[in-house]
Design a protein that fits this description.
It is a single chain. This protein is an alpha+beta fold. Helices cover 49% and strands 21% of the residues. The protein has a single domain, classed as 3-Layer(aba) Sandwich (Endonuclease, Chain A). It has a 4-stranded mixed beta sheet with strand order 1-2-3-4, sandwiched between helices.
C-alpha cells in the first residue's frame, strides 16, 4: 500500500502529465480502450505508475529519453522486479512511440492485457 506522501506526490503528478502521457491518457480514460479501467499516476508502495489497470494488474510506463541512461535503466529494472514480485506486469512504451505510433502502443497494451486475462 502506498503512504500519504506517495498519494500527495501522485496527486501533483496527475496535474503535470508530460505531453506523451497526456496523449495516451486521452485514449485510456473513461474505459475507451476495450472497456478497461485505467488510473493515471497511481501510487503502489513507494512508486507511482504512469498508468495502471487493476483488472489486468498491468502498469504502463511512458519512457522518455532519460530512461536510456544506464543508472536510470538499472533503477527501472529494480522497479520492474519489485512490481513483478507483487504480481504486477510493467509494459514500457517509448514516448516517441506514443507521439508517432499510437496505434502500435494501444495494440501492445491490448496484447499484454489479453495475455494476462486469459
Amino acid at each position: 500500500m502506498a503512504d500519504s506522501i506517495s498519494y500527495e506526490r501522485a496527486r501533483r503528478m496527475r496535474r503535470a502529465l508530460t505531453p506523451p502521457e497526456a496523449q495516451l491518457w486521452l485514449l485510456l480514460k473513461g474505459r475507451k480502450l476495450d472497456g478497461l479501467k485505467f488510473r493515471k499516476q497511481h501510487p503502489v508502495g513507494p512508486y507511482i505508475l504512469d498508468f495502471y489497470c487493476a483488472e489486468a494488474r498491468l502498469a504502463v510506463e511512458v519512457d522518455g529519453m532519460v530512461h536510456g541512461d544506464p543508472d536510470q535503466a538499472r533503477h527501472d529494472a529494480r522497479r520492474t522486479a519489485w512490481f513483478a514480485g507483487r504480481g504486477i506486469a510493467v509494459l514500457r512504451v517509448q514516448a516517441s512511440d506514443v507521439r508517432g505510433e499510437i496505434e502500435g502502443v494501444l495494440n501492445a497494451i491490448r496484447g499484454v492485457v489479453l495475455e494476462r486475462l486469459t
